[in-house]
Amino acid sequence: MRKVFRMVFRVHSFELLKACIEDILSTIKPGEDDQKKRSYAIQELADSIYSVGALRGATVKPFGSFVSNLYAKSGDLDVSVDLWSSSRIPISKKKKQNALRELRRALQIRGVARSVEFIPNARVPIIQYMSNQFDISCDISINNYPGQIKSRIFYWINTIDERFGDMVLLVKEWAKSQNINDPKNGTLNSYSLCLLVIFCLQNCEPAILPPLKEIYDGNVAEETVFYDEKHVDEICVANISRFLRQNMGQRNQTSLPRLFASFFSQFLGSWDRSSTVISTYMGRFERIQDNPSWLVKPYSLFVEDPFERPDNAARAVGAEELEYIERAFNYMSGRIVGGALDDRDELVSLLCTPSVGSILGGIRANRCTNMPSSCQLYSPVAANQYDMDLFMILT
To answer: Disulfide: which of 137, 167, 170, 228 matches 76 by Cβ 3.0-4.6 Å?
Structure first.
């Protein structure tokens, strides 16, 4: 049974939030030089691989936020080292671990990496390191076809509406500032944060994004040996074109600041986290009891992986950490209603990591020095009040 909860928030002017968001995005969005640095870091890795006899013939394929164009300047670089296989049998986890050991040795011998960490027993074995020359954090895995497919699908989702990419960058920056974007310590990984943004944009009116089953209905876990990028592209392009045609003339006109504000209220309410699944595949909340495959293991928070069902993209979240995550969402939502939109300094402290906040402080000082007072963008002037209707659909 579906219940609809209507919450009406009365908030002050969104102009200050809009200006703050614009400055945050201009600070964290990568430029051409950032893209080149990542390309050079990928080539640096490829050169290291060619020096390892056991890895010769392998190809280097970036994936993750770099491929989907959802990365920030400070973001990690995800790379898959694809080993050639003459059969359609996936290579074993042990072989992946051994390949990564060889790669770690090559990176250390060539002196291209620092802070090298090998995590062999992770669900997906990886090497993490910092590139000495380009100062980029890199995560390397072997034959990560699911990651490559998901990244490509996200790339196409990002073409539907530019607000999606901006929302992802803003939410990830906020989550880092609140220390809830760290799966190693029981909080949300970046992939699950992207899915939460998608869910928010699926449940606004009219919807900005469709249920993801309408974009890509395959299960990437079954595509474990060969990744056909052209095939994935063709499916996504055809389905997205259909969605856009069907919704022509019904484009959601909600501003980015209002969408961003609504994101934090989307996941509030009385729904039971332990018995409910956030499903971007269906574009709605689902009950765990309605799908036996979701009952295999209990989780504190279940954000279904729409491309590897029935996996939980938020499986790392613990019970105590979920309470911390909920407090962060509640506090942000409360401050948006309670007056943070009239205080730029508070907005910056809420939305940004200290490194980005320090840059924004410089931007503000520069503007206040060089602009007439009548044109100062960040004067906390009370303006028109708005009614913001936020809808929360619970199953």
So the answer is: 137
Helix (H) or strand (E) holding 7: strand 3-11
Half-sphere exposure of 252 (CA within 13 A, CB side): 21
> pLDDT class for 135, splitting at 50, 70, 90?
very high
Side-chain-facing half-sphere of 287: CA atoms under 13 Å: 6
Measured CA to CA, the distance from residue 351 to residue 23 in angstroms comes to 11
What long-range pairs does 372-381 form, CB within 8 A, spacing at least 24?
Answer: 377/19, 378/16, 378/19, 378/20, 378/344, 380/16, 380/342, 380/343, 380/344, 381/13
| Tens digit of each residue's pLDDT (9 = 90 or more) over 231-244 | 999 999 999 999 99
For 309-332, the pLDDT digits (tens) are 999 999 999 999 999 999 999 999
**Structure-token pair, residue 393:** 């659909």
The phi, psi pair for 61, rounded to 5°, reads: -125, 115
Q: How far apart are CA 18 and CA 133, in angstroms?
A: 36
* Tens of pLDDT, residues 242-255: 999 998 888 899 99
63 neighbors 9 (Cβ within 8 angstroms):
no
Instruction: Assign 119 to helix, strand or coil.
Output: strand
Of 277, 38, 314, 21, the residue nearest 194 (C-alpha): 314
| Sign of the CA dihedral with 375 first, then 380, 381, and 385 last | positive
d(CA 246, CA 82): 39
Provide the whole-model pTM.
0.86
Helix (H) or strand (E) segment spanning residue 365: helix 354-370
